[in-house]
Specification:
68 residues; mainly alpha; 2 helices
Length: 68
């Protein structure tokens, strides 16, 4: 792979990784809120949604890395 394409790939992976970190921070905050309100279905759904988004990003990162 030429250096430019490798650089672009690395930047893309880095941005996705940063986004996953932000998702993780949001999940932690929501989980802390959920500890005070176990029956809050909205919080539970949001946590699940964030986890699914994080998993999708993880798969995209893995696919990008596997292709190069």
């Amino acid at each position: 792979m030429n250096p430019y394409k490798q650089f672009q790939l690395n930047k893309e992976v880095e941005e996705m990784a940063k986004h996953r970190i932000e998702i993780h921070k949001k999940r932690i905050k929501l989980s802390e809120e959920l500890e005070n309100d176990w029956y809050n279905k909205e919080l539970q759904d949001k946590i699940i949604e964030l986890e699914e988004e994080s998993q999708k990003l993880k798969k995209k990162i893995e696919a990008l890395q596997a292709n190069f």
